[in-house]
Amino acid sequence: MNPKSLILLEYHKVLTKLTAFASFSASAEQASVLRPTSNLEKALMLQNLTREARHMLNLVGDISFNGAVDLRPLTDRALHGVVLEAAELLNVRNTLILSRDARRVLLDHQQEAPALFSAAKGLSDGLGLVDLISRTINDHGEVLDSASEALTRIRSEQKVTHGRLMERLSRYLTDPRSSRMLQETLITQRGGRYVLPLRAEFKGQLKGLVHDQSASGATIFIEPITVVDWNNKYRELELAERDEIIRVLRSLSERVADNAQSLNATSEAMVELDLALAKARYAEDLRASEPELVPFDLRPPEHHPGSQIRLIRARHPLLDQSKTIPIDVELDPETFAVVLTGPNTGGKTVTLKTVGLMVLMAQSGLQIPARSGSRLSVFRDVFADIGDEQSIEQSLSTFSGHITQLVRILKRADYRSLVLLDELGSGTDPQEGSALARAVLNDLICRRVTCIVATHYPELKTYAHTTRGAINASLEFDLETLRPTYNLIIGLPGRSNALAIAERLGLKAEIIEAARQELDPTELDAEDLLDEIHRQRDLARQNFELADQARQEAEDARDKLNARIEQYEIEHERLLEKAQEQAQNELEVLKDELASLRREMARLKEPREKIVDLEEHVEEIETKQEQTRRKKRVKSPRPKGEATPLRIGEKVLVRKLKTEGVVTDIEGETIEVQVGVLRLRLTSYEVERKRAAMDSIELPAEVKKAPAGKISLPAVASPGLELDLRGMRVEDALDKINDYLEQGYLSGIPFGRVIHGKGTGALRQAIRRVIKESSHVKRWEVGGEKDGGDGVSVVFFEEAK
């Protein structure tokens, strides 16, 4: 990509923002020098990594390499025989721990993020260095006593020697005869030896070796002759400790050198992964979406390069996203050159930079601040002439600066390039500038170069209108507020607002009219026609917005009506149940009275015919009650949020399994759904209606309604296809596994994964013992190599009877 154009489009500022989202120094450095690729396959691969990284952020939270260091400089030094410091080795350990943790997370989600998992294969799992360094160096970067037997012995002797040395020196502090000669009652060090601060006037009265004196000369630091041997011994032990520490660190450094290739691969994988995660974090911050990257059409129209640009609600990534006016840019299959007109400071430069940055970001693997459905070709190069290397706020330019950059662009641009030109032909005589601008634009179009040209020359509007492959576009200006709206309109040229603005600002009407008289009548007619087109478009847009508002209000009213209907039906069901309950109670009372009457009549030997009518009445009431209950049972349930009930034969989505099935039976709120060879009993809230047409669905023979007399278990919510017991105590885990096996059996799920980890084996053995003894389990097996291995048990449930 053209380096100067990257600067003019302020691509480096995008990279600065991206760098802030990196958690690893090496990936931050990589982000700061990221360059767009012109290779479609590589661009798609980069976008795929970003998409998977964003998915992982939403799935498991952040995956951070914060605290890691780039291991490559350390391995290079180790390979050259340099002894790494304890703190550097501690960095190696901490980096490997982060590497191991990230590898495990991505291993657990390799199905959801295969590209990230592939990149994670380069991450080391520790290489034994984590444990080795942890046993040798503590978290403060100090070599442990246990690092070697020799170091254990040396430090033990040091403690004894130091204690005896301090004991002898302390006697001078507590003895009245010597303590009065000391400047302070303390023990200090000079030159690595323990000494006492003697007052200068007592020099010669305390035998010993003088090591130093204070700046004033009032204090002499003396080593009493009685502790010289102990100081010597302690110093020898310090030197022995130093040598042994160096030997230990050298051994560790050699292990680093031995694993240099794997450690370097770990850093490279970390850079790739963290850069993808940084792109994902940046995308979340921008509320960005993945663009569709497409190749150039191999068989375009003869005049067309085959490029595509479609940006939906695109926002400049460097401006305040809450205040930025989004733009829509879509070129039809016949168009590849845009002539952009509009008022000064109306947003032309921002529009050019927005399009340019969308392309550069997309080809760098960055998601773009635009809506889903945006589509871009992968350009070989992007060329820009925007201002004079000025920012958006200071878009000053010079004619010479424009021409110099223009010469470079015209030499290098081809049909696979994108060219963005700001105020083409400005900075010189308007007539010559206009002619030059038309000639440059004509050259680009003849060579089939995709381009967007911002200009204020009216002649270019006419050129775009009459030239195949070109189209006008404009940025709106509100004459009421005298401010630009920054709305981009493809297909309409911008209006000349000078006279209208002057009139609105109060310039005399006669001056405005005189100015109009000076203009070419045809130009006035064209401007009047353009004004009318804009007015008609504004009116159409207002009508569309009103229609859209009406549609939204209708949808809201429908939703409210559906909610009211649902609430009414709930209330109706409640009242019906209450009435049935009351009727049932009254019926029971009536039956009790009838039984009592039978007994009384039998006792009195009265004829039974007297109570026949009453018995028939009771039977009639019971029959009606049963019919009411049966009607309630066969009433079709509705999926949550739906206004119409489900029907037998309708396709539904089983929410928890994310699998499609067919409704084979409905009984009250319980639905029987056939999923493959499985038949599940579910509630209406556990399924979601498929939107395909239902009337044409034929119920296949294998999913016909179960024969009468079959006993079905009550619907039990699925416990899910996975149970994670890692980190639990055995007792707690046993409760969980028993509940899971029972729910899994009753809900009808075919199988489930029980994750218990490998660990010491106690949890694994206890879990598998329960699985083997469970009557709900048909069989079980150890997880596959890619499914967790011995850390996972896969259970296959018996079919519920």
Overview of the structural elements:
It contains 22 helices and 23 strands. The strands form 5 sheets. The protein has a 6-stranded mixed sheet, with helices on both faces. A 5-stranded antiparallel sheet has the order 18-17-16-15-19, with no helix packed on it. A 4-stranded antiparallel sheet has the order 1-2-4-3. Helix 6 (86-108) packs antiparallel against helix 8 (129-136) and helix 19 runs antiparallel to helix 20 (612-634). The model is unreliable at 388-397 and 692-714 (pLDDT under 50). It is an alpha/beta fold and 801 residues long. The two termini are 68 Å apart.
List keywords for this structure.
MutS, DNA mismatch repair protein, Chain A, domain 3; 48% helix; 5-stranded antiparallel beta sheet; 6-stranded mixed beta sheet; single chain; flat; 801 residues; alpha/beta; Rossmann fold
So, CATH architecture of the largest domain? 3-Layer(aba) Sandwich
CATH class of the largest domain: Alpha Beta
Low-confidence blocks of residues: 388-397, 692-714
The secondary-structure class comes to: alpha/beta
Oligomeric status of the shown chains? Answer: single chain
Distance between the termini: 68 Å
Instruction: Quickly count the helices.
Output: 22
| Biggest sheet strand line-up | 10-11-12-8-13-14
**Number of extended strands:** 23
**Mean of all residue-level pLDDT scores:** 83
Per the principal axes of the C-alpha atoms, what is the gross shape? flat
Total domain units: 6
**Biggest sheet descriptor:** 6 strands, mixed
> Approximately how much helix is present in the residues?
40-55%
CATH topology of the largest domain: Rossmann fold
CATH superfamily of the largest domain: P-loop containing nucleotide triphosphate hydrolases
Strand content: 15-25%
- Rg from Cα: 42 Å
